[in-house]
Amino acid sequence: MVRLKILIFIVILICLSAASLLQASILGDIVYVVPLEGAVEHSLKIYLERSFDEAERNNASAVILEFNTPGGRVDAAQEIKGLILNAEVPVYAYVRQQAISAGAYLAMACDRLYMAPGGTIGAAELRQGLTSEEITDEKLLSVWEAEMRNVAELRDRDPDIAAAMVRREISIPDVVASGQLLTMTARRADSLGFIDGIFNSRGELLNHLDLGDAQIITKEMSSAERLARFVTHPVTATLLLTIAFVALVLEIMTAGFGVGGSVSILAFTLFFGGHILAGLAGDEVVILFITGIILLLAEAFIAGFGILGLAGIAALAASILLSAAETGEMLTNMVIALVLSGVIIGVSLKYMVRSKWLSNIILNYKEDKDLGYVGPQHAFQLLDKEGTTLTPLRPSGTAEFDGSRYDVVSEGGFVAVNSPVKVIKIDGPRVIVQELKNKDEEVK
User: Fold this and answer.
1) Which of 47, 37, 59, 116 is nearest to 83 (CA)?
2) I want to staple 165 with a disulfide (CB 3.0 to 4.6 A). Which of 76, 77, 100, 124 is the partner?
3) 208 and 301 inside one domain
């Protein structure tokens, strides 16, 4: 009986293999075309990883990366380079328009590098920040130059030409003069033997590769991948944090839960969701964020000395920083978001006081004597009086003295409801009280 089961299992495996081979023979060659558009970001890796996996599962004959990128993040490019080098399917670069900076690095990493007429490649200088300031640190430049040389050598390309894309001081006779970054047109790159050919169209390239009759599968980014790529852009991430901070502050300043809270939750959800989809954040980031919110809510309802609030702020900050590919860059983005939030809130409170929505948090009416308003009398008669709190004092609240209710402020912080208190000072309209240990003994 056991032998029969084993025999049946072997027959099933043979049939599946035969069916797979038959399908491949019917379909013929398969070529995956993967457009590589826009900036090189970490979210791009998820898209390429999915495309490569599908190509390998379907026994594709080749993957063609069609380049049109101005460059992007070096660390993201290094991760994607690993995907290209480890792919089980031949990966060919076809620079349709441009492969600049990190794009040139990725194009050189492919098994073969082709260009379309009018395409450009090169200019791989290091830049950083929202202002794209040029990096002059010798250590970073040396590492990046070595990366460019290494990937060129792996594909039998001239490493000096690759290095000249990084450093202005490199001079190559009849190629680039000292003081200039190297950027090459398709014709120039071809004349130097740096690329494997120029082709007017994808069809011409496929014919050159003997894949003219192949089935073409073009892989586009999914909606989730596009969202992740948009959200993780430094400018978008900073704007989302700014919106989230502003909405959160306005929500705290208003009673109940309203538009501010909803907008803040939506902005934070987009920020963290995009970074999770891009593979930059994990469950620990979500846990830290939720913990921070819980601690801030606890600070609002539980008496303390600000410890819970500080811990909540620290947890929120940590969750934001841990969701970044580079902590320093995200710290800069967060500081910018906080500054922008402060400016927006300040301007809103100063110039938008007539807004119907802001009237919930801003006093728009002046209590004028001509309108019959009479200011509070100084309550000196309450001095040394003892009473009982009707509400918790945080530190302000309400207490009862001789059967009358008064707004009071505690001297020593939080005082629980139904606690005995004594008036120790009258400061204008403010009635300052001190909690008593019991009805007969004051807190010294």
Assistant:
1) 47
2) 124
3) no
